[in-house]
Model the fold of this input.
Amino acid sequence: MKMKNCEITVAKSAGFCFGVDRAVKMVYNELGRNTRVATLGPIIHNQAVVDDIKAKGARVVEDVDELLPEETVVIRSHGVGREVYEKIAEKGFRMLDATCPFVSKIHKIVSEKSKEGYLILIAGDVNHPEVQGIIGHCNQKFIVFKDKIELKHVFEKNPDFFEKKLAFVAQTTYNIIEWGECLKVIPKSCPDIVVFDTICSATDTRQSDAAELAKSSDVMLVIGGRHSSNTVKLFEVCSRYCTTYHIENTDELSSLKLPCAGRIGITAGASTPAYIIKEVKTTMTDNVNLTANQDEEIDFATALDQSFKKVYTGEKVKGIVVGIGNTEITVDLGTKYTGYVKLEDLTDDVTKKPADLVAVGDEIDLIVVKANDNEGTVALSKRRVDEQAGYDTVVKAKEEGTVLEGVVSRVVNKGVTLSYLGVRVFIPASQTGLPKNADLEQLAKQKVEFKIIEVDEGGKKRAVGSIKKVEDEKREAARNEFWDNAEIGKTYVGKVKSLTSFGAFVDLGGIDGMVHISELSWNRIKHPSEVVSIGDTLEVYIKELNREGNRISLGFKKAEDNPWAVFTSNYQVGDVVKATIVSITSFGAFARIIDGVDGLIHISQIADEKVENVSDYLAKGDVVDVKIKDINVEKQRISISMRDLIESEDNSEDEE
Done:
């Protein structure tokens, strides 16, 4: 290939379209996360790209049955039929749907129209994967035609078609010129015929730009995969106006026998990366002397950008969720950009993951945070959109005194913050309901109820809330309800709130009552902590009420647990029992028969001889046999004797 004095021009809309760009990036993003990726068919019709993702670890499979465990399957931009989605779901594989939004639109159209009884007619290549996917969403009979000639034959063979409801769609990469010819064949007067313009706008633009460039060129080079439908269509379009060559890469340039040409045009299919276009242009430049645009450097990224709608910081856009990760989601904006929403721009709720908030296919409103034209990515925020709607709700909640609910997201200086419908709510430490100087970290990630007590009207969409106000109102309501229904003897279940040396305070549900230390146990205790701990749940009953003094005395001991009741039910005068010495006095010793019941061994009842010093015979902790001599239930006194047992033994020996 040796040419002199040539002008080389690259079409403005050459190269990757949005759908292809998004699909490729989805695969590379997953590979970058070390995900095991398998694409259902080649991700795009470009062997260089396919070889590269394979080299990075991706597999290409033709059927769902070929997938391996733990693999994430990527649906390529051409889309698939409904049954493929169902099969993936049935087998439980994780899926990323990279179907081009323009293709998804056709799926929706044919599905809805089929249900409405329309016969679907599809302009395209019946063997192309995109058309196969469209067919898979038709619920009734369909017909695929490749051009106006086949469409005429369809009508000629089926004259009754005009009496039916017909819906026409076209493959997104269908030849725009041929589509125009097909439209001439379709009757315009029949009310039961609907035609949908489904050719991708980028395809339309690319073909139009290529046609215009071909008209002013001597030779056109169309770069793209041999099996790329849109590249073949570009070749057909350009061939109408000048000599045209279809190549895949620079390797094929050397075999071309280009005629002497003063003007050479270059365009590329939607699956052709920008670097391949640049390589072809650079190689051509090295072999020709440019007579025009000699100093021009083609910025291919910019050229690609210009064929699609730009987005700007602060712009409000709509996006369709196409991928969900652990820390972000991917959205389709219908532009060249791949959109990302980080978790912190999705919600302020630290307990939520992206999958808890959105699903693939959801359409959401977003604000552009930052667009990166070089990388074709854009950072987006759903949270900022939610803020305005949430702000209106918050203002109304303040006016009406509504109780709201949210999760504390973080502890900050002098308080905590949370997000309610995208609005940042600050709760001062004094309004958290916690004691002064308490550790606020205990509220982190906790769900709380609060009221709005102040709203920032300066446009920052912030508010001040109070947990304490809600708790105070609940306590007041609980107090009123308690006093309206309380009566002596009524039983409640409450939690021990605090302990003092004289008793335990129990929360009865917004109002506290006190169990005196003497009411905590039938045994003698020195401190309530010997019986209960803070947080314990107790069943108590009301002993005394004083509404004016806001005092409630509670009982905890149960009559059936009274040691004296247990003792009198199981013991009587004359019984011989074992007892443990618990204390020594000058007049005798006290011995425990059962917990809570002690008997007195008088000094005269210790031995069968005169006892001068009790300690000479007994010590604390000794276990001795005693006989019950007397029981005074009223005074709760018991007399027991060791001497009676000694005398009984002596009498037995005498009888022998």
Observations:
- The chain has a mean pLDDT of 84.
